[in-house]
From TrEMBL:
The gene is EOG090X04CK. The chain crosses the membrane at residues 111-131, 151-171, 183-201, 239-261, 282-299, 328-354, 381-405, 478-498. This is EOG090X04CK. It is found in: Membrane. Keywords: Glycoprotein, Membrane, Signal, Transmembrane, Transmembrane helix. It comes from Scapholeberis mucronata.
Length: 501
C-alpha cells in the first residue's frame, strides 16, 4: 500500500504542475512557433486590384454636418455602395508573401486547443510512466500494486480517439463533403472485412495472442463463477469476441483513413522540398517504412523464427531468446514512434507549402476567380494546421499508448526479464477465498472491509491475467501499426498514380 501511496503522490504532483508548466512552456505551441514554420499570407483586395488592373475603390467621403430644427449638429453619413467581391484572372502574376508563425497567430487555428492539449498531455504521460517504471525497478514490490500510470495511458488513448472522432466528424457535418463521408464509410467497411479475415489466421503463424487470451479468461472466469456458487457455462463464445474486435477494427479503420492520406501527402511533399538534405530525407523514409516493418514483427515466420528460433551457421543458440525478442519489439515501437515525432516540423512545413502550390497550379488554368475564393485558397491551409497536426500525432500517440499498456499490463520487461512466464505458470492459481466468505457483518470492522476489497482485487487479477492483457493490448498495438502502414500506403499509391497522370 505504501507503493500505491508513492504513485498517488507522483500523480497529484504532476497534475498540479501541468497547468503551471504549460502556461510558460507548451510542447504543442513550441512545435508550431519555435521550429521555424513559415506560412503564406493571403493577398489583400488592394493587391489583387493592382495586379489585375482594376480601379481602386474611392475613399469614403467625410461625414457632412447639418443643423436640425432644434439647432443641434447632425451628422449625415453617406456611405458609397461598394461591392467587395470582384473577379481577377486565374493566371494573375501573384507572388505570395511568407512569414513565421508567431504565438499571437495560432489561437485562431481550428482545433488549436485540442491539438495543444493532446501533445502536452502525451508528454506528461511519458514523464509519469518513466518515473513509475524507474520506481518499480527500484522497489520490486511495486509490481504487485496497482499501476496508476496505466490510468494516464488509458486516458491518453481516449483523448487521441476523441480527437480523431472530432476531426472525422467535420466530414459528416459539412454539406459539401459527400465524397469524404463515403470514403470514411468504405474504409470502415473494408477494415471490418479485413479484420474478420485476419482474426481467422492460425496464431502459430500470426502471434496476436487472442486465442490464448480467450482460453485464459474463459478458464479463470468459469472457476471464479463456480466458487461464487453461480451456474455458468463460461463467458461469450470466441466468435462473438472476435466479432467485437472486428467492429472495433472497423471504427478505428474509418478514423485512420484521412489521417493516413494526409500523412502520406505530407511525406510526399516533404521529399520534394528536401532537396539535397540527406538527413531529413533519411528521417522521412524511416517514417514511411517503420509502420510496415513494425507490423511484420508479429508474423512469426518473418520475425520471431529468425531472431529467436533459428540457429545460424556455427552459432549454438539463436540470436536472442523469446523474452529478448518481446523486449526488442517494444523498444522498436517506442523508438520509431519518437522518430516520427521528430519529423513533425518537416511534415508541417510541407503541408503549409501547399498554399504556394495551389496558386502556381491556379496560374496554369484559364478563366477568372473571385477575390474571396482566391484568398480562401491560401488562408484555409494555415487555418487547418492544427487539424492536420491532430491527424499526424493521434495515430502515433495511439501506437505509443498501446505499446506502454501492452508492456506493463502484459508483464513484459524492457531488458528481457518479464514479470510473467506462461511456461512457469500453473492453472491452479485461482483465489481460494470468495467474496461471500468475507462479507462484513453488521459489527464488522474496517479490517473486514479491507479484506473484502483485497479479495475482490485478487479475483479480478486472476480473471484478467497477464495472458489476457497480452492478447488484448498486443492485438491493439499491432492493429495500430498495421493501420498506419495500410493507410499511408494507400495514400502513397494514390499520390504516385495522379503524379504520373
Amino acid at each position: 500500500m505504501a507503493v500505491l501511496g508513492v504513485q498517488l503522490i507522483v500523480t497529484l504532483l504532476t497534475i498540479s504542475v501541468m497547468q503551471k508548466v504549460t502556461e510558460r512552456f507548451s510542447f504543442g505551441k513550441w512545435l508550431l512557433c519555435r521550429t521555424g514554420l513559415v506560412y503564406y499570407l493571403h493577398p489583400t483586395d488592394a493587391e489583387l486590384r493592382k495586379l489585375a488592373g482594376l480601379p481602386q475603390p474611392k475613399p469614403k467621403p467625410k461625414p457632412k454636418e447639418g443643423i436640425n430644427k432644434r439647432g443641434k449638429n447632425k451628422k449625415k453619413l453617406e456611405e458609397p455602395v461598394e461591392d467587395k467581391t470582384f473577379n481577377v484572372p486565374r493566371n494573375i502574376d501573384l507572388q505570395l508573401q511568407t512569414t513565421n508563425i508567431l504565438s499571437r497567430d495560432i489561437y485562431q487555428l481550428k482545433f488549436f486547443t485540442e491539438f495543444v492539449w493532446l501533445v502536452d498531455y502525451s508528454v506528461f504521460v511519458m514523464i509519469v510512466y518513466l518515473i513509475t517504471e524507474v520506481y518499480c525497478g527500484v522497489v520490486p514490490k511495486a509490481n504487485q500494486e496497482v499501476n496508476l500510470s496505466m490510468l494516464w495511458c488509458l486516458l491518453l488513448i481516449g483523448f487521441a480517439l476523441k480527437s480523431l472522432c472530432s476531426v472525422t466528424g467535420l466530414y459528416f457535418r459539412s454539406t459539401e463533403a459527400a465524397a469524404e463521408r463515403s470514403l470514411v464509410l468504405v474504409g470502415g467497411s473494408f477494415c471490418f472485412v479485413l479484420a474478420l479475415g485476419l482474426l481467422l489466421i492460425d496464431e502459430s503463424n500470426f502471434e496476436i495472442g487472442l486465442d490464448a487470451a480467450y482460453s485464459a479468461f474463459n478458464q479463470s472466469a468459469s472457476v471464479f463463477l463456480e466458487r461464487q456458487d453461480l451456474s455458468s457455462e463460461g463467458p461469450a463464445s470466441k466468435l462473438i469476441l472476435k466479432l467485437c474486435f472486428a467492429v472495433w477494427c472497423a471504427v478505428t479503420g474509418a478514423l485512420f483513413i484521412f489521417p493516413g492520406l494526409r500523412v502520406s501527402r505530407m511525406h510526399w511533399d516533404a521529399l520534394r522540398f528536401c532537396g539535397d538534405r540527406s538527413i531529413r530525407k533519411f528521417f522521412i523514409y524511416i517514417n514511411l517504412v517503420t509502420p510496415f516493418l513494425l507490423s511484420l514483427l508479429w508474423v512469426r515466420p518473418l520475425a520471431r523464427h529468425y531472431f529467436a528460433e533459428r540457429i545460424f551457421g556455427s552459432m549454438e543458440t539463436p540470436i536472442m531468446t523469446d523474452h529478448m525478442f518481446d523486449s526488442m519489439r517494444l523498444w522498436l515501437c517506442i523508438v520509431f514512434g519518437l522518430i516520427r515525432v521528430v519529423s513533425a516540423p518537416c511534415c508541417f512545413q510541407a503541408y503549409l507549402n501547399l498554399a504556394g502550390d495551389r496558386i502556381e497550379k491556379m496560374k496554369k488554368e484559364a478563366g477568372r476567380i473571385t477575390n474571396i475564393d482566391l484568398q480562401r485558397k491560401v488562408a484555409i491551409i494555415y487555418y487547418y494546421l492544427c487539424v492536420v497536426g491532430l491527424q499526424f500525432f493521434a495515430p502515433i500517440i495511439l501506437c505509443l499508448g498501446f505499446t506502454l499498456m501492452n508492456k506493463t499490463m502484459g508483464g513484459y520487461g524492457w531488458f528481457g526479464l518479464h514479470h510473467y512466464n506462461p511456461d512457469e505458470c500453473t492453472t491452479q492459481q485461482e483465489p481460494t477465498a470468495t467474496i461471500s466468505n468475507v462479507l462484513p457483518s453488521d459489527d464488522s470492522s474496517l479490517n473486514a472491509a479491507r479484506e473484502q476489497w483485497l479479495v475482490a482485487i485478487n479475483s479480478f487479477r486472476q480473471i484478467f491475467s497477464y495472458e489476457v492483457y497480452r492478447g488484448v493490448f498486443g492485438f491493439a498495438n499491432w492493429w495500430m501499426q498495421f493501420l498506419s502502414f495500410a493507410s499511408i500506403g494507400c495514400g502513397l499509391a494514390y499520390q504516385s498514380y495522379f503524379e504520373d497522370v
